[in-house]
Structures are given as structure tokens and as C-alpha cells.
Design goal:
Helix content is 39%, strand content 28%. It is of the alpha+beta class. A hairpin with a 2-residue loop joins strand 3 (67-74) and strand 4. InterPro entries: RelE/ParE_toxin_dom_sf.
Length: 96
């Protein structure tokens, strides 16, 4: 399956990396990047669908305990919507 990143997903991804670089070590940065790569590889294979979220036609998967990926599937394309930091206030959560 093809994977498309939304602007919000790209922004979240880089903000998470920036936070890890500033607050943690290179080890945690590389772990996050590797976990994202592995998770996207699983999704691209197309034989795994993760938990449905509370949002219409949207699934979620935990990348690391602090970050959840929200995504949708249309035809043969997976749209990455958000890499949400689970410690943030959910009232600020918007998919698009």
C-alpha cells in the first residue's frame, strides 16, 4: 500500500523529534525514528489494521507509549493524519 503524509503528521513527527533532541538523548531519537519506520512498514504491507479510533474511518496505533499514530485508509492509500503526544490535552486534538 502507498503511504501519504499529511501536513499535520509531518509537523507532529518533526516536533516530536525536536523535543526528543532537546530533552533526551540521541538513543531516544533513534528509537522513535526506528519505531515509526517499523510501524509504517507494517502498515504498508497492508495485512495489518490497528484499533479503530473514535473518529470516522480512522485507526490508531501506538508507536511508543507517548506517541499514537492516527491514520485512515482509502482504496490502496494509507493517510498518516497525526503523531499525537498522549500527554497533551485531548481537547486540543484535531485530525486535520
Amino acid at each position: 500500500m502507498k503511504i501519504e503524509w499529511t501536513f499535520a503528521a509531518k509537523n507532529d513527527y518533526w516536533q516530536n523529534i525536536e523535543y526528543l533532541e532537546n530533552q533526551w538523548s540521541e538513543k531516544e531519537v533513534l528509537n522513535f525514528i526506528n519505531e515509526v519506520d517499523y510501524s509504517l512498514h507494517l502498515l504498508a504491507k497492508g495485512n495489518v489494521i490497528f484499533t479503530k479510533s473514535d473518529y470516522n474511518n480512522t485507526h490508531k496505533m501506538v508507536i511508543i507509549k507517548q506517541i499514537t499514530l492516527y491514520y485512515s485508509i482509502e482504496n490502496e492509500t494509507i493517510y498518516l493524519l497525526r503523531f499525537w503526544n498522549n500527554y497533551q490535552d485531548l481537547s486540543n486534538f484535531k485530525l486535520k
